[in-house]
Every structure is written in C-alpha cells, then in structure tokens.
Amino acid sequence: MRPPQHFGFIGLGNMGLPMARRLLAAGYPLTVWNRSPARSAELGRAGAHVAANPAEVLQAAEIVGICVKDGAAVEAVVFGPGGLASAGRAASPRVVVDFSTIAPAHARDIGRRLEERTGAAWLDAPVSGGVPGAEQGSLICFVGGEAVDLERARPFLAALTSRVTHMGPAGAGQTTKICNQMIVAVNVLTIAETYGLARRAGVNVGSLAQALAGGFADSQPLQIFGPAMASRQFQPTRTAVELMAKDIGISQDMAAALQADTPVSAFCSQLYARIREQDPALFDRDVSALVQRYG
Questions:
Q1: Model pLDDT, residue 57
Q2: Ramachandran region of residue 14, left (φ > 0), alpha (ψ -120 to 50) or beta?
Q3: Is residue 246 among the annotated active site residues?
Q4: 177, 187, 225, 265: the active-site residue
C-alpha cells in the first residue's frame, strides 16, 4: 500500500493557517514554512515538520501549497533567498499550487520560470470562501494549468475545498478569481452603504440580512458581513479591505491591457483608493468595518 502523499504549505496567515491545519487533521505528513515563525511553531507542536526555508518544503513534499498576500510575496517565496527555485532539479516531480490572488500574467511568468529552474509544475489556484471556508474545508477553487498536474494535486485540494474547477491554461485560475473579486468588491461597498442608510433611516439593521435573505439582493457577503456591520463587531478579520482593493486594482490593470470597458469596477477601484488615502487604519481591517464610513 502506497504511503500517504507528503504535502507542504507556505504562508500561514488568516487563510493559510486553517488550511494547513486541515491537511494535518486529514492525516497527511506536512512540512510548513512561514515568514513569521510563531505560526510555524504552532503547527510544529501539532505534528508538522517546520522547514528552515521554502526550498526545504519543496524538497520534502510532493505537493506544495502557497497562500500569501500578493504577487510580490509570491515572488519572494519562489525566487528570494532560500526560495523554491533554489531547490534545483530535485523538485522536478513536484507540483506547486498557488492559492494567492495575483495578476494572471505574473502567475504565468512565475510558473514558467520556476519550471525552467526546477522542473516543478505550477498551478494557479486562487480560492473563494474566506476564512470560514478555509476553516471548514469548503473553499471553491479556480485552477489554471495543465490538467495532468491538477489530477496529481486532487488529494491535496480535496482536504481544503468543496469544489475545484479547471478553468484552462496557466493564468486562467487567476483571471476567474479576479472576475469573482470584481463582483465581491462592488458588493461589499454597496452592503456598507446600505447598512449606513438603513441605520440613519431608523431601520432595525440587526434584522436586515435576515429580511433580505432569499431575495434577489441576497448574497453570501450580505449574510457574512451584514450582521457584523449591524453589530459593529469587526473581528476576526475574514477579508481585509487592503486585499479587496488589491484585487479590484488588478482587474483594472487587466481591463486596460485588454481594452475592456469596466466603468462600475473602475469607480469601485477609485473608492478603495480614496479610502486608502483618507482612512489608512481602515485598510487593515475586515471589510465589514467599511460601514463606519457611511453611518
């Protein structure tokens, strides 16, 4: 009987830590690395092997997941000191699954360069569902890359997701996630405005999400963030304003490159930029805190 696959995970933030915990709970050998060592140590006490650098993760594991903040962070994990690329050709049978949300062109470029240097395959596989989805293993995942590499990564993804959709070649997963974020980024701002207006009008905002449930205005963001906006309880951070702004910004870079007309998303991106300038402290908070700008 073949022993269980050895998995790796890099990036143990709000999303990555519960994802890595699920891999451990599923019984897989796990090697982890995080820039801040405290979270790695926590998983080490739970049974994971803590690597000294990302390259050691890739050398130990057959499938490696990455979940970090942005494209610059992915670049550092892959090509920085001790990065994945320094593992050399010993990594040739490996598959790297990047759950981060970055520009599609950047994802294609990173994957191509890593394969040239190590032979490891790359899947861009951003997810939606936030921290609750990461904790429950119910994330939905959009994958770009070769189908054969996705099949090799299926057991890894099965512990973390409720649905995986192969969207096409490299970069297609990131493109799909940006489409997702265009809808969500506009939605959460509208929900914040709605709660501000309803509160000023004297409506019982604590009942608003329940009242709208099942109608055309209903959505998961409304049901997740609406009650937090009503109660003014903005912890824990499930999705930071900063990340929403980053993703809607990527959409506008793509729209410019493709000469696509996206006026609503463009205006939304401008609103997030204004928030960054006027209220930088809000930028690090959960998107439910956006309601503070509207009443």
A1: 97
A2: alpha
A3: no
A4: 177
